[in-house]
Amino acid sequence: MTNAFTREHARDLLEEWTASPSLVKHGLSVSFSTEAYGVREAARLGLTGPEAEAFVETYACAGLLHDFDYDRHPSLTEHPFVGVAYLREHGWPEPILHAILAHADYSGTPRESHLDKALFACDELSGFLTACALVKPSKSIHDVEVAGVRKKMKDKAFARAVLREDITAGAELLAIPVEEHIGNCLAAMQAHAEELGLAGTPST
């Protein structure tokens, strides 16, 4: 990636196109979770130094940009196609664009690369973990535990818009148990709790 295509640039685009604070936070949470898988994959591939940093940056950018056009273009005929067309016109790397398309089942884009699989796997789960945190009395992601998340997944009335099958399918794509996948994303989001607004509220 060239210096023009950084997570800072990606975040600027997300915030420029997105009026909804919760949708911006979703982009951030998916980015942090996806980036964590980029770090693991870079290590598995033996990447170090600037090469590893550039590799991981791709994962972070894909997370930030996967829904950046949703606020303006929420219909299935436009999202994520409008956003991807914009990014392609401005020279963003194809692996990021492919992953963004692949995160939407209806796009017909197959999930081929590790980035494709990681982005899809982290999307619904990141939203679900946010919901799990916000129902805690503390509203803190630090009080969310893997076992509790698994229990909430079985409660169809809780966060009903979140597709449980995408969470389990994502873990399968990454070839890890669902519990491990939840733990990985939870740790990534906990590490950025303040930025996500999920550090909790002071007790009164």
Automatic annotation (TrEMBL):
InterPro entries from the entry? HD_domain (IPR006674)
The record places domain HD at 36-126
Q: Which Pfam family, just one, is annotated for this protein?
A: HD
Highest taxon listed in the record's lineage: Bacteria
Keywords tagged on the record = Hydrolase
Gene3D superfamilies with a match to the protein in the record:
Hypothetical protein af1432 (1.10.3210.10)
- One GO MF term: hydrolase activity
Q: Which residues form the signal peptide?
A: none
The protein's name in its UniProt record: Metal dependent phosphohydrolase
Q: What is the lineage of its organism?
A: Bacteria, Pseudomonadati, Acidobacteriota, Terriglobia, Terriglobales
